[in-house]
Amino acid sequence: MLYALSLAAGLAWASGLRLYLTVLITGSLMRLGFVHLPDSLALLASPWVILAAAVLALVEYFADKIPAFDSLWDALHTLIRIPAGALLAAGAAGHVDPSVTAAAALAGATIAATAHLVKAGVRALINFSQEPPSNGSVSSAEDAFAIAGLLLALFVPMLFLLFMAAFIVGAGIALPPLWRGVQVGFRGMAADMLPHAARIRSGLGPRDIDHLRGKRD
User: Fold this and answer.
1) What total of structural domains would you count in the chain?
2) Quick one: which of 189, 209, 211 has its CA closest to 198?
3) CA 98/CA 111 separation, integer angstroms
4) Is the pTM of this model over 0.90?
């Protein structure tokens, strides 16, 4: 039961951060015989699934390191990571009572959504920052974080569950200010873009507008 909880939570959590990398690592470890997971997750060990996950993980590796595009990538993957987290968590429950499977899917969706929203919110704030840190270094740190958490879930379940409890508490505290920060960032970006859009529509350049402002003053 402890391992099943860790597996379900770990797959869902890692999917919220790096879905394709999660499938690639889990499937490869199953294929090589390092982990033995429920038959309901046997599809992950398929060579075709591993190959597809490897290609998509490589695409995501580069896409996530392009400033601003990474936030667009996260927005698109809101519709992918959360349902995938639910399916993987349900698969981790194995062939048990349908109510248990449904509960695992709901819990998996919640955990994947929490991890995804924290990740997307942090990256959006970084993109809005005046002096953002290197996008590549932040993305690489997320890669390492997702891999380390997934391996803990697979091989050290008790430690991962303790980490998961701390993450959920921390996310509950961090998400409201993160959301407010993202809103402020979007408003600031819109405020910067609107004068530029108005200038384009009017056919005036920056010097023309400065000249008109001088005359008005």
Assistant:
1) 1
2) 209
3) 20
4) no
Burial class (CB in 10 A: 0-12, 13-18, 19+), 49: middle
List of E strands, 6-90: none
Q: Whole-angstrom Cα distance, residue 164 to residue 185?
A: 29
pLDDT tens by residue, 128-173: 766 666 777 888 899 999 999 999 999 999 999 999 999 999 988 9
Distance between CA atoms of residues 50 and 105, nearest Å:
23
As a whole number of angstroms, the distance between CA 164 and CA 167 comes to 5
Long-range contacts of 25-28 (CB under 8 A, 24+ apart): 25/147, 25/150, 25/151, 26/150, 26/154, 27/53
The segments of the chain whose pLDDT lies below 50 read: 197-200, 202, 204, 209, 212-213, 215-217
Neighbours of 198 (CB within 10 A): 11
Residue 76 lies in a domain: yes
Domain enclosing residue 34, as ranges: 2-174
